[in-house]
Every structure is written in C-alpha cells, then in structure tokens.
Amino acid sequence: MTLTLVKSPDEAAETEPLTLAALRHEIDLLDSEMVALFQKRLELADRVGRAKDAPTGGYVKLRPDREQAVLAHVLQGARPDTRDAVEALWREVVGHGLARQGQLSVRVWAPVEPARAFDAARLRFGRAAELKTERDPQAALAFAAEGKGVAVLAINAGDPWWMGLRREWAALSVFEGFGRDIPTSLAVGRIDPGALPRGDRVLVTAGGDAGDGSGAGRRGLDTHHGWTLSLTSAPVVPGGPEGCVGAIA
C-alpha cells in the first residue's frame, strides 16, 4: 500500500513564501547582472564615440542605418510577445549611450494629437533626449537645420512644411516615420546621406503620385497646390531629380 502525504494548510502556507522568496532572489541577481552589463555597454559606447571620426558637414551624430541593423539583430532573439518591450528597452539603452557624447535635442510640432507625436518621439529617441514642443513648424525646421538636434513634424496637419525640404530646408533629410502603416509624422535632421536607413524613400514632387519612372508606384501622404509628399520603394538617391528628401525604415 502506498501512502500519500498531504500537506496541511499551515505547511502549504510556509512553502509558498519560500518559493516566492527564491524567485525574488533570482530577480535580484538578474537586476545586478543587467546593471553591470548596462554600465559596460556605456563604457564601450564612450570608446566608440572617441574612436569614430567626427561627422563633417554639420551632420548630427545619429546613424539611422546602424541603429536599424543593430535593432534587427537584437529582435531576432526576442519572442513575438516581447518584441515591443525589447525594442523600447534597447532604444533607452542606445539613447543613454548617445547622451554620453552630448544630449540629443528634439523639437516636436503636432497641432493635432500632440501627445501622440510626443510619445512616439520619446519612444524613438529615449528619455535621455531633450524633447520640447514647437508651435511653429518653421521654428522646428530652423532648429534642425542648425545641426544641433532633430525635429519631428506632423503631416496632414494643415501646414505643407515638407515642401521646404526641396527649397530652404534642402540640407535636412527625413530619416524616420511614425505610424504603423501610414506615417502621421516624420523626423528630419542634418543626417549624413550615407547613414539613412534602408526602406521606403520619401519624395517631394510637383504633380501627381502615379510613379517615379522606375516602375515602382508611389503612396501619397499629403498634397498642396500641385505638390505631393509620397513614399516609394524605388532606390532613388536623396537630392536627385526624383525629389527624394530622405528615407524611412
């Protein structure tokens, strides 16, 4: 005959806290390891900042192409249910690393749903960046043109500021889009053209949005007096005759 030992309610109550304590102890150990790894990464970021060549032409220190490649590598090891959390954590880590080389300043203009645009910019650039709102898109563009920071501006918000990317703000490039399928705002800055991310090219052109001569169609984002802001998958060159003013991943 086999005897089965049944724990009393008092014994079960004593076992549960021990299990919880063990789990909390394991979390404490992981927290200590994470802090040590984070500090080591900051030290390596400092060394990279001192070793790399300083950008010429007044470009900001951001390398969207490098960030895109590293983030893709990081997300390969993330489970589908943790991808958003992993990306948010990674952007915070990178943001603090960049801040060691000088705080990044971001100006946000979004007259419609400003909190949404501000939150998207905060997620993209991290809490180490300095974020401020602007009431005037031209002021945000002028700030970005100085090369000391970047601007995040809403589109389809009643102001065709993007037309200036082919005119007085030609030194600025689009390097990020915010929105799931169709961008609702764009980030611009003095970005080295060779550091733009791989992805859709952003076009500012006169006329419609039927195509760009490469066989690739355009997806319109905004229009104003015969001018169109659109995306294309064609590998057009920024600053070229096609009207490419940047790229988004």
From TrEMBL:
Matches recorded under PROSITE patterns: CHORISMATE_MUT_2
Pfam families xrefs: CM_2
Protein EC: 5.4.99.5
InterPro entries xrefs: Chorismate_II_sf (IPR036263), CM_dom_sf (IPR036979), CM_II_prokaryot (IPR002701)
GO biological process: chorismate metabolic process
Record-linked SMART domains: CM_2 (SM00830)
GO molecular function, one term: chorismate mutase activity
Annotated ranges, domain Chorismate mutase: 14-105
Protein name, as recorded: chorismate mutase
